[in-house]
Design a protein that fits this description.
This protein is mostly helical. Helix content is about 50%, strand content about 10%. It folds into 2 domains: about 100 residues, Winged helix-like DNA-binding domain superfamily/Winged helix DNA-binding domain (Arc Repressor Mutant, subunit A), CATH 1.10.10; about 70 residues, no CATH class. The chain binds iron/sulfur cluster. Iron/sulfur cluster binds next to loops.
C-alpha cells in the first residue's frame, strides 16, 4: 500500500538523520527548518513561512529557530522595506553541514541501484504530491519556474505577483506564494 511505503521510508530517513554523527545536536524539527530555508526563496524565508511549510504553529517553530541561531546556524536580517518583517539566513556553517548530510547516503545508494527507474519514481512522486496539493487547498510551496506568475521580461525571470525581477538561481527555489497554472492553461502549453 502506498501509505505504508511512504511511512516506512519516512521512518528510515528519520533514523538515518538521528544516527548521523554530524546531526547529534540537531533536533528533527530544527533540521527540517534548515532544509526548508536552504530551498526557499527570499519571499519565503520568514518565521511564518517556516511554520506554514512544516505545518506547525509559529510559537513551536520560533523555539527551534532561536536554538538554531544560538548554534550559529541561522542569522536574522530585517526586511529592507518592512521593518517588522525578518528574514532567516543560513550561515556558511549551516550550508556546509547540509552539504555533508544531503542527500541521505542510504537513499542515494538505493536510487543508484535502481538506475533509470529512480528518475521515473521521482517524477511519479512529484505527480502524486501535486495531486494531493491540488485536492487539499494547501500552499504548494512549488518551484518558482513552475509558477503561474512566472514571466520572462527582457529575457530575464520576473515575478508577475510581486512585479519584481528575479535572480536566475532563484527560479530553482521554492516559494510560499507559488501557484500552479490553471489546468486549462497547462493543457494548452
Ligand atoms: S513567480 Fe511565483 S513562485 Fe516565483 S517568486 Fe513569484 S509568486 Fe513566487
Amino acid at each position: 500500500m502506498l501509505f505504508d511505503l511512504l511511512e516506512r521510508l519516512t521512518s528510515l530517513t528519520r533514523v538515518w538523520f538521528r544516527e548521523h554523527p554530524l546531526l547529534a545536536d540537531i533536533q528533527p524539527i530544527q533540521l527540517s527548518a534548515l532544509l526548508y530555508l536552504a530551498r526557499c526563496n527570499g519571499y519565503s524565508n520568514t518565521p511564518l513561512a517556516v511554520a506554514e511549510y512544516l505545518g506547525l504553529t509559529k510559537g513551536t517553530v520560533s523555539q527551534s529557530l532561536k536554538a538554531l541561531e544560538a548554534k550559529g546556524l541561522l542569522s536574522k536580517s530585517q526586511d529592507a522595506r518592512d521593518k517588522r518583517s525578518v528574514h532567516l539566513l543560513l550561515t556558511d556553517e549551516a550550508r556546509n553541514l547540509l552539504a555533508s548530510v544531503m542527500p541521505p547516503a542510504f537513499l542515494e545508494t538505493a536510487a543508484g541501484r535502481m538506475g533509470g527507474q529512480a528518475g521515473e519514481l521521482e517524477q511519479l512522486l512529484g505527480d502524486l504530491l501535486r495531486n494531493v496539493q491540488r485536492a487539499t487547498d494547501v500552499p504548494s510551496f512549488g518551484l518558482c519556474k513552475t509558477c503561474r506568475f512566472h514571466r520572462q521580461v527582457a529575457g530575464e525571470p520576473f515575478c508577475g505577483l510581486t512585479e519584481e525581477p528575479l535572480a536566475r538561481p532563484a527560479i530553482e527555489l521554492i516559494c510560499r506564494e507559488h501557484q500552479f497554472p490553471e489546468a486549462s492553461q497547462e493543457q494548452g502549453q
